[in-house]
Structure formats: C-alpha cells, structure tokens
Design a protein that fits this description.
Layout: H1 6-10, E1 37-45, E2 54-59, E3 64-68, E4 78-81, E5 92-94, E6 103-105, E7 125-130, E8 135-138, E9 144-147, E10 152-155, H2 171-179
Length: 236
C-alpha cells in the first residue's frame, strides 16, 4: 500500500509540519493610525519566525508594537509614522510622500494591511516613478510593481544583510536551522525513495518507476512530456 507524498502530508495540517508559531514573538507590521504619531525604540529582539531582527516600539499613546528593524537603528532612537513624518531611516510614510530613488521595505499591498513586500533580511525596494493614481516600485527581485499611493512603507534597508553568505559548515547546523520553523530536512528526490513512498521510488536509483508518456485522456495543450505512440507492436 502506498503512502501520501510529502507535499500531501504537509498540507494535511498534522503537528509534524505545523510551524511552531507559539514560540514566535509576535506579528511585525505597521500599526493602523490615521494621525501622525511618534514612538521610541525600547528593544531589538530576535524572533525565529523572521529572518530579520525585530524592533519593539513604545508609541506615545502607550501601545507597544513590533516592526522589522532597518539597518543602523538603535535602542532609544525616536521613530514616527503618518503624513507629517520626515524622511528618516525607520520612519513609516505613504508611498506618495516618499521621493523617487528612496530605499524602502515592508510595503503594503493594500492601504492599511500592515506590510507584505520586501521583509526579508538585507532586502529593500526602490521608488521608481510616481503618478497621480499609482506609484511604481522596483522590488528586490527586480520586478516592477505598481502600488496605491496611500500604501505605506518603512524608509531604509532591512537589517541582517549577509545572512545567506555565511556557510552552514555542518549538516547538523542546517538541521537545527530548519527545525526552528518545522521545515523538512533533508530534501530527498523521488527516484531515491522506496516504492511505497513515491511513484518514482524503487528499482534502480535513477530510473523512474512509472511511465511519463502522455495519458490517453490528456486534454489538448496539457504539458505531457513524451508523446504516446499511435500504435505498438510490429507492423504487419
């Protein structure tokens, strides 16, 4: 009897593949406010759910929030957000108020959602061009995307750059890194598995255990690989 593939087991929702979110320090996003507000950085913390360090901010109304840390920030520094905010690292402004060529991160997809783009350590986006009804931004992947002018973003570059440049050196270090977020490690290709674990498993290591030619009921335009022959056997 066969087993579910890893992709199928992962989507089932069992504790084996569930992220340990109870150990995460909190959600890092822009707070929802309609007026300009100042805050003070009280701490810079590590959260295993984020690749970048997080900044703990105490706002003037007493509320505490978490934001993704920019490079060059320090404890005790003042930050602000809103329409009257000046252009400074760590401040949160609407895209319509940010000059072209400025490095930004944690950009909102829709106004007020807290930030969705350019959140990984060492990344940043750039404001390319502003129009009356949209703002063109170049994302870290070099892809250009338009945003609503009221979408907010943080000025600066995400802290923690160079994280991927440091080698793991040992498989054990990689194991603990993946274990922190319940990621499966190591990843094994299907042809190396046993026959019960994958359709390509069994036989010799490099031979797929099932044919990959087009099925009889493949619809027109389906990506099928090898084309099924019209007939088989010796022609008589």
């Amino acid at each position: 009897m066969g087993k579910n593939l890893i992709q199928q087991a992962r989507g089932k929702g069992s504790p084996t593949y569930r992220a340990p979110s109870f150990r995460y320090r909190g959600e890092a996003k822009h707070r929802h406010t309609e007026k300009s507000m100042n805050g003070k950085i009280t701490d810079i913390i590590h959260c295993q759910g984020h690749s970048a360090p997080l900044t703990e901010i105490q706002w003037e109304d007493g509320e505490m929030t978490l934001e993704i840390s920019p490079e060059g920030i320090r404890v005790g520094e003042q930050v602000s957000m809103g329409a009257e905010t000046r252009l400074q690292t760590g401040n949160v402004l609407a895209l319509k108020s940010i000059p072209e060529g400025t490095s930004i991160f944690n950009i909102e997809q829709n106004p007020g959602d807290g930030g969705k783009f350019a959140r990984s350590s060492g990344t940043f986006a750039k404001v390319l061009q502003k129009f009356s009804d949209s703002v063109l931004v170049m994302l870290p992947s070099k892809k250009k995307k338009t945003f609503h002018p009221d979408c907010r973003a943080t000025i600066g570059i995400v802290a923690g750059g160079g994280r991927k440049e440091k080698p793991f050196l040992k498989a054990g270090f990689k194991h603990h890194k993946m274990r922190a977020r319940n990621k499966l490690y190591p990843k094994v290709c299907g042809v190396s598995m046993n026959a019960v674990d994958h359709p390509f498993g069994g036989k010799c290591s490099s031979h797929k255990g099932r044919p990959t030619i087009a099925p009889h009921n493949a619809p027109p335009g389906k990506n099928v690989g090898k084309i099924r022959p019209r007939r088989t056997g010796m022609k008589r």
